[in-house]
Amino acid sequence: MHPVLTDLIALLQLERIEDNIFRGDSRDIGSPQVFGGQVVGQALSAAQHTVEGRVAHSLHAYFLRRGDVNAPIIYDVDRARDGGSFSNRRVVAIQHGRPILNLAASFQAPEKGLEHQAEMPDVPPPDGLKDLTEVASDVLEKVPVKLRRFMTHKRPFEFRPVEPLSLDRRRKLEPRKHVWIRAVDRLPDDFTLHQNLLAYVSDFELLATSTLPHGLSMTRGSVIMASLDHALWFHCGFRMDEWLLYSMDSPNASGARGFARGQLFTEGGKLVASTSQEGLVRVIDPARKKLRSDPSQQS
């Protein structure tokens, strides 16, 4: 298996300290803090370790503090309920004695029922599309060093955007985008692992959809973004080593917050999961930014 993917799988498996307490490490992927998808994926993994015979169908997480990539994360699981068909778990992720994330996850014993789904968007297939890392050198030259490292970092997933990539956005675009996603190598058949990987990758790109109608530049430091909460629903089986279309849209931005939704489809058009996320989207006043950086202008 590809070493980057092997490392991610090990990262999501966690070390069991006691029956309901687990410890996980972090990886620096070029972002200024621990990647939120990593903490969500690990928290789901911790909850899964306390459930038998039932499969996660939803999770809801709140990001409370930035994670320190250089310190381990402790996951404390509360076995809130085990009913006849459903189990509920509450997980607190802790670093330096303080919670950085709260997560609730619900699990269900498999059963059959009514079925319908939304139609898959009509977009080009992944074959023939370029991976996110294949960005033209003239575009990368305009990107700050930290963002450039994040974009060129070796990832355990392929990302093939359907829409043309534009980092220095001047045009106002429709608040929607589509990205094909697939693990870089074949994975084991353990479905809980595929769920953990989807939880991890579902945090990529989602919140940024809410900035598209506003012509904001991601290369000039004119906007601060941070995830506040994240929700994920698993509808049916899927594999992360097969192509999934991540279809995202943002129906609202207000109060310095952006709201975005996502749907994940197989190449055959089956809707396998849905997401939603709200996050801080704060536009920086260039004049204030200059004032803060110039000591002679400060009182």
List keywords for this structure.
12-stranded antiparallel beta sheet; Porin; globular; 299 residues; alpha+beta; disordered C terminus; 6 helices
Describe this protein's structure.
- The chain has 299 residues and is of the alpha+beta class.
- The protein has a single domain (3-110, 127-297), classed as Beta Barrel (Porin).
- Helix content is 18%, strand content 36%.
- The chain contains six helices and twelve strands.
- The protein has helices at residues 3-13, 36-48, 137-140, 145-152, 191-201, 286-293; strands at residues 15-18, 21-24, 55-63, 73-82, 86-95, 98-108, 157-161, 176-183, 223-234, 244-254, 257-266, 271-283.
- Strands 1-2-4-5-6-3-9-12-11-10-8-7 form a twelve-stranded antiparallel beta sheet, with helices on one face.
- α2 runs antiparallel to α5 (191-201).
- The protein is globular.
- The model is unreliable at 290-299 (pLDDT under 50).
What is the gist of this entry?
This protein has 299 residues and is an alpha+beta fold. It has helices at residues 3-13, 36-48, 137-140, 145-152, 191-201, 286-293, and strands spanning 15-18, 21-24, 55-63, 73-82, 86-95, 98-108, 157-161, 176-183, 223-234, 244-254, 257-266, 271-283.
Report the structural category.
alpha+beta
Summed up, the domain count is 1
- Gyration radius over CA: 20 Å
Q: Count the beta strands.
A: 12
Order of helices and strands: HEEHEEEEHHEEHEEEEH
Give the oligomeric state of the chains in this entry, treating copies of one chain as homo and distinct chains as hetero.
single chain
Helix content: 10-25%
Shape: globular
Specify the CATH architecture. Answer: Beta Barrel
Mean pLDDT: 89
